[in-house]
Amino acid sequence: MLDSAPGPSPWYLRAGKPAVPGYKWAAAGDSSQTAGATVLSGRDGTVLILDFHNYVLPVDPETLLVWHQHGVETGLTPPVVLRIFRLPDLRPLEGDLEELCGSMRRSGAPFMASSSPLCEFPVPTTAASRRLRQTFPDQLRHIEELLILCHSSAVEASPTWELNNLALLVARPSEGTYELFPQDWFNSANLDYGYQWVTRVARDPRTGRIHGEGVRISPFVLDETLRNTL
Prior knowledge:
Blueprint: E1 24-27, E2 38-42, E3 45-50, E4 55-60, E5 63-68, E6 80-86, H1 97-107, E7 111-113, E8 119-123, E9 132-133, E10 146-151, E11 166-172, E12 177-182, H2 184-187, E13 197-203, E14 210-215, E15 220-221
Antiparallel strand pairs: 1-2, 2-3, 3-7, 4-5, 5-6, 6-8, 9-12, 10-11, 11-12, 13-14, 14-15
């Protein structure tokens, strides 16, 4: 179940997942410019570069959904931005990979591609604990549920090393709604939040429970509130 769940780049793309027919994932390199960047390459070269903390979910054999949230230390949290890439539209990037990664990072962009995404769609993160209406892009409206980990200023506007603001964003594109559930079990657990973090979640189709895992934390299962663990 969790093996097929999206996880943050570069760590969860290193094993070659998710599989993209005709393409492969690889580390961009280990220099100061390329360390941590991940490339998607086809027969003719690299078509996409992803920086840290991008999540990738294939929508179909020719379409990738990639989401990312910029980090802030305090104040209103940025939206989670959903980006849809159509692989046949992506041409190989020209130029030295180290220079391309450097340019990506200097611009503050979480990715680099030869053409813009088919669409970019922000999902706000500044309201929690209530279901909100949202019209999702046509390419996603067949999806019943997306489980997205994010940070929310509605949970905590000024997180510290001892207090976090993690939320689970449950988006339902097919019905046009989303809701943020504060992860109370994690946010006030007196963990080292620069060292311990949640990386991915998935719903068990048999029980309906949401399972998760992370770095230097034990696997967990959320209760019916989606805010605490069993």
